[in-house]
Write a structure and sequence with these properties.
Distance between the termini: 13 Å
Largest sheet: none
Strand content: under 5%
Radius of gyration: 19 Å
Helix content: over 70%
Number of domains: 1
Shape: globular
Structural class: mainly alpha
Number of helices: 6
């Protein structure tokens, strides 16, 4: 993983910058969305961080199955838990956005339902790990399930919403993408926000892994 403190400080600076600038900059006037477009800086960046974390967990699960190193299992599980955190924040910020845009915190939208199913799949991962006491068996079963969960994530968030013709979500079901409404000023806030939250996610992952390594007596340098 990344070493040093510079990237942690960079993550904090980028997140603080995006939070403050996201509230202060001028945004384009878009139909239906209006000023709520500002939530894009907080909502979509959470999904970016979630996908990076869950993608990282997939890589480490595959690495574990190829070498059976407990260190890889710690990184895989830590990335899942971090991804669940960002996914939960993405759902909450999305519900607030939906309330102001569509009138309800939750609608029968393929994207929203897909996000909920995906999160439940990863919550099941956490429950599965907690139900197995033997370390090696827990790691193997979790790794296999994690690959399955990531496939569900891709299907329910990346494929099915794009095939649906009744989605209210921007960029799905024939609706224009919110990203198309981003001018240069908004891009100068959105991309730093996404990078900042990803760096914070890596930081949280490292903290989790080091904590679990101390508890389980795992040498991370091997």
């Amino acid at each position: 993983m990344i070493k040093g403190m510079w990237w942690k400080m960079l993550g904090i600076v980028l997140v603080l910058y995006s939070i403050i600038a996201g509230l202060l900059i001028d945004v384009p006037v878009l139909p239906f969305i209006h000023q709520t477009i500002r939530n894009l800086f907080y909502h979509v960046s959470m999904w970016f961080a979630m996908f990076v974390m869950l993608g990282t967990s997939l890589v480490y699960s595959i690495r574990y199955l190829s070498g059976y190193r407990i260190k890889d299992d710690l990184y895989a599980s830590g990335a899942v838990y971090t991804g669940i955190f960002f996914g939960t924040m993405g759902l909450l910020t999305g519900m607030v956005w939906a309330k102001f845009t569509w009138g309800d915190f939750w609608t029968n939208d393929p994207q929203l339902n897909g996000a909920a199913v995906s999160m439940m799949a990863y919550l099941a991962y956490a429950i599965l790990r907690g139900s197995i006491d033997e370390t090696a068996m827990r790691a193997r079963i979790s790794a296999v399930y994690n690959i399955f969960a990531f496939m569900l994530l891709v299907i329910f968030l990346g494929v099915l919403p794009r095939l649906a013709d009744n989605s209210l979500h921007p960029g799905k079901g024939g609706n224009s993408s919110t990203m198309e409404g981003l001018d240069l000023t908004m891009r100068m806030v959105f991309y730093p926000a996404a990078i900042g939250w990803i760096l914070i996610g890596v930081w949280l992952l490292q903290i989790h892994v080091r904590k679990r390594a101390l508890i389980q007596g795992v040498n991370l340098k091997k």
